[in-house]
Design a protein that fits this description.
Length: 343
């Protein structure tokens, strides 16, 4: 435009330390396969957008938008600035912990694990960092199952209390005149089904049993969310629900579980539906089986190309191919069933 720049090169000074984290719709556990979906919930940390600030969030999407296969998978750039690297690292981890995204898989928790590695903390950065730190970057549980169950149960208790009014019959807080009351929750955690039991004593004291281990439970609402105490664990959690799926976020990490309705027949123990459907819109590159073929768990059944990457559809269990719904070259939408297995 012919205008003068505001500063000359010799006037520019380094000050403090800045780090940028790129929050992407992808699955680090599946070789960073790009993900698509609808952003049902998108909560950013307390920040400023597109300006100089200790925490900055530059995003091209907002809650309610969809992540499609037609563009880059990046959701936002999270930039922090501190007086030194240690302060910037702490500020970035806190900002990532405050980020809550539901509806599409992201790399937020993976980024937090990267920050916690000694290599990143000491700025020993090179292209082999992920492979060198693989043991602590992949296959990590996040929040323990018992904590996630306690958080989901706490959300149900809080919702029941919030819905109560002056009518005593509107209360759903498990009060009983004598003895204790038990409530059973059917839980699906990492494709395994179990039952959790909440026991409420006459005086209001609660115990939660997960996998047969009962621990005292206490719940109260605070400004930052739900304060949960389960045995020796204590923390503030945020619970975002997507139907029966509960996404739990805490300073210590995150987790996902489903409280399953036992009367819903769609919750099959083997749960093959999600494994044999298209994880995102794409093109079928190949189909390796035909009806009647006997397959083993983990065997590649078809290959789908999406967002410039190949994704193998593998058998979730041993079985026989009952039906093949697609052929090589077909364009499919997310969630479309590709193959069906029979016993």
């Amino acid at each position: 435009a012919g205008q003068a720049l505001p500063l000359r090169q010799e006037e520019i000074r380094w000050q403090g330390h800045a780090i940028e984290a790129r929050i992407c719709a992808e699955n680090p556990e599946q070789q960073f396969l790009p993900a698509t979906g609808h952003l049902r919930r998108l909560v950013a940390p307390t920040e400023a957008g597109f300006e100089v600030a200790p925490v900055r969030w530059d995003a091209g999407v907002r809650e309610g938008d969809s992540i499609t296969p037609f563009y880059d998978s990046m959701i936002a750039k999270l930039i922090v600035h501190g007086d030194n690297r240690a302060q910037a690292l702490a500020r970035l981890d806190a900002a990532l912990a405050a980020t809550r995204i539901v509806g599409v898989q992201t790399n937020v928790q993976f980024l937090r694990r990267v920050l916690a590695t000694e290599s990143f903390d000491q700025a020993r950065l090179d292209t082999a960092l992920i492979e060198r730190e693989r043991a602590v970057l992949f296959g990590q549980e996040g929040l323990p199952m018992a904590v996630c169950v306690a958080a989901a149960v706490a959300q149900h208790l809080d919702a029941a209390q919030s819905a109560a009014d002056a009518d005593p019959f509107s209360r759903a807080d498990h009060w009983a005149m004598f003895g204790s009351v038990q409530r059973h929750f059917s839980v699906r955690w990492q494709d395994a089904a179990s039952t959790a039991v909440l026991e409420v004593a006459h005086g209001g004291a609660m115990h939660l049993s997960v996998d047969g281990q009962a621990q005292p439970l206490a719940v109260r609402r605070v400004a930052a969310g739900l304060e949960v105490r389960l045995g020796a664990w204590h923390g503030v959690v945020q619970v975002e629900r997507d139907g029966d799926v509960h996404h739990i976020f805490a300073r210590e990490g995150a987790g996902v579980l489903t409280l399953v309705d036992p009367l819903n027949a769609s919750h099959d123990e083997e749960g093959t539906g999600g494994h044999l459907t298209a994880p995102m819109p794409g093109k079928v590159l190949s189909v390796a089986v035909k009806p009647g073929d006997v397959v083993q768990k983990g065997q590649v059944l078809a290959v789908l190309e999406a967002m410039k990457m190949e994704h193998s559809i593998t058998a979730p269990r041993d079985g026989t191919v009952g039906e093949v719904m697609v052929a090589a070259g077909d364009q499919v939408a997310e969630g479309v069933e590709l193959l069906a297995l029979t016993d």
